[in-house]
Amino acid sequence: MSDELYPRDMLRTASDIRFAGSLPDAGGHATLDNPFCGDRVGFDVTLADGRIKSLRHQVKACVICQASAALLSAEAEGRTADDILDLGDRLMAGLKQDARPLLAGHPAFDLFTGITRHRARFACVLLPFEALEAATREAEKATS
């Protein structure tokens, strides 16, 4: 395994299961797949006042995608679907530009700096953002 692509911090983060599982009372759920690599990410969310109150993820994916889901889950409480979309867009811009930090205000995401030279892996980082946004949008529809 390449230390550049899979640093120890990423492996440690990918093993964080605090937000793994499902929510029986979820207001929204979405599962998305990356057909190119086989990653699959699902999120269950509940909302309060349009913001994420609680969430759980189901991830069958590479280490990069697992780490991204774990980091995003730790940052998501209190955010809206638009916030999640914005975070994902800014992270993608950081990856494309090889920026430091990758995502201003969120230093934990710098563990993906080794991916900037591997464009095919950007989708692995961003799939959890897309799945969480979709689940949050579904929960918004259910409450409106």
Automatic annotation (TrEMBL):
One GO MF term attached to the UniProt entry: iron-sulfur cluster binding
Any one GO biological process: iron-sulfur cluster assembly
Domain of life the protein comes from: Bacteria
Family matches, as InterPro entries: NIF_FeS_clus_asmbl_NifU_N
Residue ranges occupied by any NIF system FeS cluster assembly NifU N-terminal domain in the UniProt entry: 10-87
Pfam families, per database record: NifU_N
Protein name: Iron-sulfur cluster assembly scaffold protein
Source organism: Zavarzinia aquatilis
